[in-house]
C-alpha cells in the first residue's frame, strides 16, 4: 500500500485529490496539511511514501519545503501538483528535489500514475515536460531573465502580477512588509523594470500568471 500525505492550502483541492486517489486500491491518503507547520507535525506522527505538495502555500512555499527536506536528507518522495505551468516551475521543483511535477488540471489517471511512479523511486514528468527537456538538451534556449530570480523573488513577482498588495503578500508569506519590499526591489532590478505595471506586463508575456 502506498501511503500518501497531501499538502495544499485549499481544502477543496485536497478533497479532489483525495477522492481521486481513493479509487486506487493500492493508494491510501494517511494525512492532510494546509501549510508547512501542519505538514511538519504530520511527518513527525505519520510515515508515508509520497508527499503530494502544492507550491503556493502560506508562509513557506512548496519550493521551500523541498529545500528543507533535501537539506535534512529526507528519503520522502515528493510529487508537486501545482496550478503553475510546467515550463515555469517544473524545472525549479525537480532541481529542488521533487520526484515529479503535474499541473492541477491533469486528469485523474495521470495523478494516480504519477503517485505510483514516484513511489517506485522513479521520476515522473508529462510527455510535454519530457519534450521540453529534450529540446533544452539539443538546442539550449537563452535563459529568461526571471529564471535568475530566487524562488522567493519569483513567488513575489507572481503574486504582485496577480494583483496582490505588498501587505497581502507579507501576510500570506508570513513576512514583514519591509522584507517583501526588498524582494520587490530585487525583482525590478534583475528584470530591468521600474514599477508594478511593467512587472505585471512582463509576467503576462512570459506566462507566469
From TrEMBL:
SUPFAM superfamilies: C-terminal effector domain of the bipartite response regulators (SSF46894), CheY-like (SSF52172). One of its GO terms (molecular function) is DNA binding. GO terms for biological process: phosphorelay signal transduction system; regulation of DNA-templated transcription. The keyword Transmembrane helix does not apply. Residues 3-119 form the Response regulatory domain. Keywords: DNA-binding, Phosphoprotein, Transcription, Transcription regulation. InterPro entries: CheY-like_superfamily (IPR011006), NreC/VraR/RcsB-like_REC (IPR058245), Sig_transdc_resp-reg_C-effctor (IPR016032), Sig_transdc_resp-reg_receiver (IPR001789), Tscrpt_reg_LuxR_C (IPR000792), WalR-like (IPR039420). Residues 142-207 form the HTH luxR-type domain. The modification 4-aspartylphosphate is found at residue 54. PANTHER family: NITRATE_NITRITE RESPONSE REGULATOR PROTEIN NARP, TWO-COMPONENT RESPONSE REGULATOR. This is DNA-binding response regulator. It comes from Aquabacterium olei.
Amino acid at each position: 500500500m502506498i501511503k500518501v500525505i497531501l499538502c495544499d492550502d485549499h481544502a477543496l483541492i485536497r478533497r479532489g485529490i483525495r477522492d481521486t486517489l481513493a479509487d486506487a486500491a493500492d493508494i491510501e491518503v494517511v494525512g492532510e496539511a494546509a501549510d508547512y507547520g501542519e505538514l511538519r507535525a504530520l511527518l513527525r506522527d505519520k510515515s508515508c511514501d509520497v508527499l503530494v505538495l502544492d507550491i503556493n502555500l502560506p508562509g513557506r512555499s512548496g519550493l521551500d519545503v523541498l529545500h528543507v527536506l533535501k537539506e535534512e536528507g529526507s528519503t520522502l518522495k515528493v510529487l508537486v501538483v501545482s496550478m503553475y505551468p510546467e515550463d515555469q516551475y517544473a524545472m525549479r521543483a525537480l532541481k529542488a528535489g521533487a520526484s515529479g511535477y503535474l499541473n492541477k488540471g491533469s486528469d485523474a489517471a495521470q495523478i494516480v500514475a504519477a503517485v505510483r511512479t514516484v513511489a517506485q523511486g522513479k521520476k515522473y514528468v508529462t510527455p510535454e515536460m519530457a519534450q521540453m527537456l529534450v529540446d533544452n538538451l539539443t538546442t539550449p534556449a537563452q535563459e529568461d531573465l526571471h529564471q535568475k530570480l530566487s524562488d522567493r523573488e519569483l513567488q513575489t513577482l507572481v503574486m504582485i502580477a496577480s494583483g496582490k498588495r505588498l501587505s497581502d503578500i507579507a501576510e500570506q508569506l508570513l513576512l514583514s512588509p519591509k522584507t517583501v519590499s526588498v524582494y520587490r526591489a530585487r525583482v525590478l532590478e534583475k528584470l530591468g523594470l521600474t514599477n508594478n505595471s511593467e512587472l505585471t506586463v512582463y509576467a503576462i508575456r512570459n506566462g507566469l500568471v
